[in-house]
TrEMBL record:
<dbReference type="InterPro" id="IPR001214">
    <property type="entry name" value="SET_dom"/>
</dbReference>
<dbReference type="GO" id="GO:0005634">
    <property type="term" value="C:nucleus"/>
</dbReference>
<protein>
    <recommendedName>
        <fullName>SET domain-containing protein</fullName>
    </recommendedName>
</protein>
<feature type="domain" description="SET">
    <location>
        <begin position="197"/>
        <end position="423"/>
    </location>
</feature>
<dbReference type="InterPro" id="IPR046341">
    <property type="entry name" value="SET_dom_sf"/>
</dbReference>
<dbReference type="InterPro" id="IPR050869">
    <property type="entry name" value="H3K4_H4K5_MeTrfase"/>
</dbReference>
<feature type="region of interest" description="Disordered">
    <location>
        <begin position="1"/>
        <end position="28"/>
    </location>
</feature>
<dbReference type="Pfam" id="PF00856">
    <property type="entry name" value="SET"/>
</dbReference>
Amino acid sequence: MDRFVPTHHYQSTQPSGEPRAGPPPTSGELGVLIKRLRSQTEAIYRHSYDASTWLARGQTLAKLGYPELAVGDGWKAELLVSSTLNILISESATSAIALPAWKLGYRMGFWMSSAPEGGADAELRRRDEEQRDMLCQYLAQTQGKARRLMEENLCLWPELETGKYIRRRYPWMRKEYGRRDDPLVELINDEFSETGQACEVRRHAFGHGTKDTSDVLGIFATRDIAANDTILVDYTRTWGCNGPGTDGYAANLGGDQGCGNLFHPNAGLTIDLRWLRDAAGKDARCCLLVARMLLCCLEDGASHPLAHHLVARLTPNYSGQHVHYFSLLNDIALPNTFLRTQTSIDIFANRAYDTWVLFTIQARIFNNTCGNPMAECLMPLFSLFNHSCEPNVLWGMGVDHRTVTVRAARDVKEGEQLFVEYDGFMADETLEVRRRKLGKWLEGPCACTRCMREEQEKQQASERVDEKIEGAGWDISKGQLPVFPEDQLKLKN
């Protein structure tokens, strides 16, 4: 948000017809808001713990039509204010005699002692108490504004704390975070080589078009593959499950050594994530998946989470007007709480983990996952296969829900692109139903061989019907009606 972006690049994520914090900005107002957003972001970099600055930027984001980001800034502002209020209230309640001898530093970045060396006399104590009360009043007002900001951008407040938005690429994202460069493609092919010499990733998966198709990747066979041969066994460390929470056996934190449940939030980790399972409930598998992805970015020393190879290889679906729901708890509060409490990331000062980055990661993850109601997995190589409604390869999930095995559905020739079926329950559906459901993953109508064949058959059938109507010899539009034998009969009185 600290980069200059032309006004024509801005596209709101606010669904049409949804209530918003105010009317949409005019073309003149848009330029003013963009400049304001940039200056407020720079102010946050300088004073990362100033709740009023987070609040101000959140209000600007709301006017620009980014409800999910406005809620994220409102949540951070409310968190800063609540933490400060808790300190003031707890210190004041500790003792009626020893009033808090602290004042909040400039822009709320630090605390400083206000007590004189010889102790505070009655007048100084009275003045400190007045200042504390004034500060508490100011903080309470800021807290109220932050909550109103969140309420105005959540459509189901306060029962569910859920909002609506359309997934779109944020205009301030740097270009290098939006495409897959040659070193990344080489890295992916190295990973394929380690699993066997059966396939590789290539650019221009569907040929060269009028637009740049270099970032359209596909998986191609590097040799002839016989039917039922195993092509790939893919294992992931980015997954989540609805396994046991903190009420399970305290000594078994890893899910192994006697644990009969393969779904355990802590499997393969050295930290305890069972609290996420408790907090997220039925959505724990998705929250744990995001947490594990963020953990991979940190453990692997990525310069930016969007630059990590597991994130950079993924593509989101930014097409159309499909409305998604976002949760204040699952999409904002829990990921930030995980970063704040279980990693070294300062969620206020580290710009690489701003709210828009988290939503960008989520858009890429959940356009490429596989799983079931109990587990959600993001496979590093399997996620790169393109879809076909008549695939030439089959896939299956292992019992650990962290391994996917891909095998040939028929004989495959060298150089042939390998396709999987994204949703195996759509095989018997009509063309229209399949294309509608595939809109979750594809940016346009499915153009696989089966869909194109059925579309052509449907068009030909429609043309045959039109020919029959035209050959009937009469035209209703001109008032010509057919005459049948029974029309000649006359009823007798």
